[in-house]
Amino acid sequence: MTREDYERYAAAFNARDYDMVFDFYAENPRLAFFGIEITTRQQLKDFYGFMHQYVKETVEVERFAASDELAAVEGVIRIEGIKDLTREILDANGMEQFYPIAQGEVQSMRQYIHYHLQDGKITSVGCALVP
């Protein structure tokens, strides 16, 4: 995966083109972050389809490094509430680990994201927040 490949991936994510996003993944990938695990195209669509009803989420890449087996990204994830996402809504959808966000509220989080690669496709993703 090159920086240009990743920029296309991030652009697809920012555009909410979940099918194009998933096309960057190998068969049977494992995305694990903040207690969520996604292994299928439909799970990715379901999770982000739900979340993006309430928030506009964008990825700003600041640093990128890659080898044949790993792509590492440091960037800022910006979350903007477009509709109130309450504690009750999160809990009812099994997302107790996430924080509510009100319409108009903005949260920015620095993240380190590691993508394990095989034959240029993403096989797994892990990320960590930087305090």
Give a nutshell description of this structure.
This protein is an alpha+beta fold and 131 residues long. The chain has one domain: Nuclear Transport Factor 2, Chain: A, CATH 3.10.450.50. The chain is 28% helix and 45% strand.
Describe the structure.
There is one protein chain. The chain has 131 residues and is of the alpha+beta class. The chain has one domain (3-130): Roll (Nuclear Transport Factor 2, Chain: A), CATH 3.10.450. It has four helices and six strands, in the order ααββαββαββ. The protein has helices at residues 3-14, 18-22, 41-54, 87-92, and strands at 25-33, 36-38, 55-66, 70-81, 106-118, 121-130. Strands 2-1-6-5-4-3 form a six-stranded mixed β-sheet. Strand 3 and strand 4 (70-81) form a beta hairpin. The protein is globular, with a radius of gyration of 15 Å. The two termini are 28 Å apart.
Supply database-style keywords.
131 residues, alpha+beta, Nuclear Transport Factor 2, Chain: A, 6-stranded mixed sheet, 4 helices, 45% strand, globular
Question: What ranges have pLDDT less than 50 throughout 5 or more consecutive residues?
Answer: none
The CATH architecture would be: Roll
Radius of gyration using CA atoms only: 15 Å
Largest sheet: 6 strands, mixed
The helix/strand class is alpha+beta
| CATH class membership | Alpha Beta
Strand content: over 45%
Oligomeric state of the chains?
Answer: single chain
Round the mean pLDDT to the nearest integer and report it. Answer: 92
Task: Please count the beta strands (DSSP E, at least 2 residues each).
Answer: 6
Query: Spatial order of the strands in the main sheet?
Result: 2-1-6-5-4-3
Number of distinct helices: 4
Query: Between the first and last Cα atoms, what is the distance in angstroms?
Result: 28 Å
CATH fold call: Nuclear Transport Factor 2, Chain: A
Helix content: 25-40%
Tertiary shape: globular
Helix and strand element order = HHEEHEEHEE
User: How many structural domains does the protein architecture include?
Assistant: 1
